[in-house]
Amino acid sequence: MNEKPYILCIDDEFFILWNLKEQLKKVFGSNFTIETAESAETAKEIMKEIAASSADLAVVICDHVMPGQKGDEFLIEMQETHPRTKKIMLTGQAPAQAIGNALNHGCLYRYLSKPWDAHDLELTIKQAIDAYFQEKSLEEKNKELADTLYFHRDSKYPNFESLVKQLKGNGISNVQQSILLIKIMSFPSIIKTFGIEVYRKIFKKLLQLLSVHLQNEEKVYHIYSDEIAVLSKLSEGELIEKMRSFRMILKSDDLILDDVGFHLECRFSSANGQEDCYYKAKLALFRAETQGSTDFVTYTDDLSTDHHLQNFQWSQKIQAAITNKQIVPYFQGILDNQTKQITKFECLARIKDRDTILTPDVFLKLAKVTGSIRMIGLQMIDESMNYFSDKPFDFSINLTESELEYKSFSKWVEARLSHYKIDAKRVTFEILEDISFSENKNSLYTIRDLKTIGCQIAIDDFGVQYSNLARLLEVDPDYLKIDGQFIKNLPENKTAYLLVQGIVELARGIGAKVVAEFVDRPAIQDMIETLGIEYSQGYLFMKPSPVIPESSKLQL
User: Which intervals hold domain Response regulatory (predicted)?
Assistant: First the structure.
C-alpha cells in the first residue's frame, strides 16, 4: 500500500505528459506519487487502484482534447466519485463552453493554457494541494463533531440528538413509527454504591444485550444516562410483543459484570406517530414511574400536552404575583388548651390573582419545580412580620428547603426582626415534612442559627415522610405538630389514639410542646384535651382568614 498522496496527469501527447511528470517530480516527488495516463479510460483504472489503496488523490491535471472522452466530460463524471480532488484543466484547445461545463458541473479548480509557465503551474498545484488537505481536515473535524453530537460519548450508540434528527426526517416523509423507552430505575443506587465507571459498563452491556435481542432490526438509542429508546417500523403492538421476552430477562436474570450480578429495575413505555412519538412515549414513561409499573405503559389521549400548557400558564401567574407582591398571608388561630384562648397564629401562603385567592394545592408544586418557592417564602416572612409588628400575638411561618439551604438566611431573618421590632421568641418556624437534611447539610446549620437568635422551631406533620424520630435528634424542636392523618380519626381509631399518646409522651420527655392539627369537631378536641395536648388547630376554631379576629372573639 502506497501511503503517499497522488497527483494524476492526463494527456494524450506522450512528450507533454513526460515533460509534465518530470517537472512535478522535481518539486513534489518527495511527498507525492506522480501518475500519468494517456486517456480518460486509463485514468479511471488508475483512480480505482488509488481508491483501493485508501490513498489520497489530491490533484488531477487533465487535457481537454483526448481520444474518447473529452476533458470536461471526464472531470464532470469524476466529480461524482472524487468531489474533494482538485481538478486543473491544462490545455491549449478547449472552447469556452467546455471550460464553462467543467467549472459549473465538475468544480474545476483552475484553468491553465498550453504552453504553461512552470512557476505558475507549480504555484497552482501547491495551492490546490493546500486546499485539498484543508478541506479534508475540515471534513474529518466535522465528522468528529457529528460523532460527538449524534453519538453517546461512552457507549458510541446514537444519542438523543440523533433520535430527534431521525424523527424529524421521518416526520417530513410522513412515516409512521413506533418507539419504546426503557428507564433504569437502579441508576442512582448503582452509581452511589459502585461508582460511575461500573454503571457505564453495566449500561453498555445492557445496550449490547438489547441489540442482540433485536437482531439489528430496530435501532437502539442511548438517550440519557438512565434511558434507552428503541425506534421501529413495526406497529406499537408488534414492538411491545417483541420486547416482552427482553423485559422478562431483565426481571428474572441479573446482568453479570466481573462475577457480580446486578438486578436492574426498569420502567417501560411506548407510543407511535411521527415526529411527536418520543414526546408521547416520555409522557407515558412519567406515568409508568408514578405508578411504579413494571409492565409496558402506552401513550393514551388522556396524557395530552394540554396540562403542560396549563402548568406553564399557572407558573406565569405565580411569577407575576411575586413581581407584583401579591403573595399574601392568611392566618389560622392556634388554641391554647389551658386558657381556651387563641394565643398564636399560623401564617399560610396565598396568591392573589385578581379577585381569586389561590391556595398552595394550586401553586406549591409548580413553585418548587420552577424555583420560585424561595421568593414566595421570603415575601411571606416579610408580610407576616409586618402584619404582626403591632399586634401582641405569637405567629408561625412554614419554611421550605429553598430558604434553609442558604447560609445567609438566618442573618436575613435577624435583620427583618430588627426592622419590624419583633422579639425573636414570638416567631416559630415550622419545618415542613419534605425537607431532607441528609441532602443539604446547610439546612441543619440554618435551623441552629435561627434557634441561636431566639426563634422557636416546630416540626410540622410529625410522623410522616422525613418527620421521624431521627429528626428530633437533628433539630431539638420546641414544638411537634402531629400530622392530621393521626388526628382526624382519633375518636374512632384506637391505633391512631395510641400513636398520638406515644408522641405526646415523647414530646414531654424532650421538653417540646404538642400542637394537634386538623381539629374539626368537638369529639376530637375532647380527646386532645384528655391526652394533655397543649395546643389545637383546625376549622373547629378558625378557618384561614386574611385578617385575625378581634381580641374579644379569640376566647372560646
Answer: 6-129
